[in-house]
Design goal:
single chain, alpha/beta, 434 Repressor (Amino-terminal Domain), Rossmann fold, 6-stranded parallel beta sheet, 4-stranded parallel beta sheet, 17% strand
Length: 345
């Protein structure tokens, strides 16, 4: 019995009463095809059981890329009132370096855009981006947790670093903070530490949804790791006098031999005459790539930035724009940095 021929683009075009090119554009979700037409063509394709041939799709995409066309621009977006912040903030510098390198490797153009916090100014900026035909937006973390961005994003493929953007929920890329905490606990035990303390600044912890704290407490309370001490979470910087006093009371009560912290270094310890690592070991959950003397978890910000670009370009290739129906989360595994601040390391 002869095998039934699979439905083709021409079959769909004949039933829809349109050209084969229109069918192709509709199935690739091209903006120049009307939404009503795209919906009707998709329904006909579903009824016929049409499935694209992935080898042909890949070949056609390669042919399109070889045709002369305008350069594709991917915008790196910093939201907040201080555009100079990204020039001095270590993670931002490395996120952007990873993005720009990956954008260049893919043959696209990059541009940096500052989005102010005020709704009117932000709206004008997004309209400018659409007018300039920016194809995709990579959002750096927002200034505060639970941020709402009430702007029109339908012209852009979008993705964001981290959890600070609460609405709309975009595709997100972030270092795996739970894995980072487990990695830190594994390394301090290998170093022979027996009384493990955790110190967190609440605001910094809230920016990642308290995932470090959640993982530590799960191990301490539900997996009964007796070497883990009750954590100390302070409001505001540990450099504040009241927080230094709270830390000294906590240390006197629990006597930790190592401190794990979301701080990048330990000047607050030196300010109260505690030597690292002679008196206590120190492990940072956010070792900066430009200061590798500290023992701890390297969140690989450049890799995070590159993965963010891969996320938005994958949706550009599928002509997917705006807020995704099913947002996806990409977790980048961190690495351990040996450093010199962990006793026994």
């Amino acid at each position: 019995m002869p095998r039934k021929r699979p439905p083709s683009l021409q079959d769909i075009a004949d039933l829809a009463g349109v050209s084969r090119m229109t069918v192709s554009r509709a199935l690739r979700n091209e903006p120049r095809c009307a939404e009503e037409t795209k919906q009707r063509i998709r329904e006909i394709a579903d009824d016929l059981g049409y499935r694209p041939n992935p080898l042909i799709v890949a070949r056609m995409e390669l042919m399109r890329q070889r045709k002369p066309r305008r350069g594709v621009t991917i915008g790196i977006v910093y939201p907040g009132d201080d555009p100079e912040h990204v020039k001095t903030h270590s993670n931002s510098i490395h996120w952007m370096a990873g993005m720009r390198r990956r954008i260049e490797e893919l043959g696209f153009q990059s541009d940096f855009f500052h989005i102010p916090q005020t709704a009117g100014s932000a709206g004008a900026k997004f309209r400018t981006l659409a007018y300039r035909q920016v194809d995709a937006l990579c959002f750096l973390p927002f200034p505060k947790p639970d941020w709402h961005l009430d702007q029109e994003l339908s012209p852009f493929a979008c993705a964001a670093i981290g959890y600070t953007l609460c609405h709309p929920v975009l595709h997100r890329v972030i270092s795996d903070h739970r894995e980072g905490m487990l990695l830190a606990l594994e390394k301090v035990r290998e170093a022979g530490c027996e009384r493990v303390g955790l110190i967190l600044e609440r605001f910094t912890s809230s920016r990642i949804g308290h995932r470090h704290l959640e993982t530590f407490e799960r191990c301490r309370q539900y997996e009964h790791h007796s070497d883990l001490l009750p954590p100390l979470v302070v409001e505001g910087p540990l450099s504040q006098p009241e927080n230094r006093k709270a830390f000294l009371r906590w240390r006197k009560k629990h006597d930790p031999d190592v401190l794990i912290s979301n701080l990048i270094d330990f000047p607050f310890l030196e300010s109260v005459d505690i030597r690292v690592p002679e008196d206590v070991g120190f492990v940072s959950l956010d070792v900066r790539p430009d200061d590798m003397k500290v023992s701890g978890v390297n969140q690989l910000p450049e890799r995070v930035g590159a993965c963010l670009v891969d996320r938005v370009t994958s949706h550009m290739y599928c002509n997917e724009r705006g807020t995704p129906t099913h947002p996806e989360l990409t977790l980048v595994p961190p690495e351990w940095n040996e450093g010199t601040t962990l006793r026994g390391a």
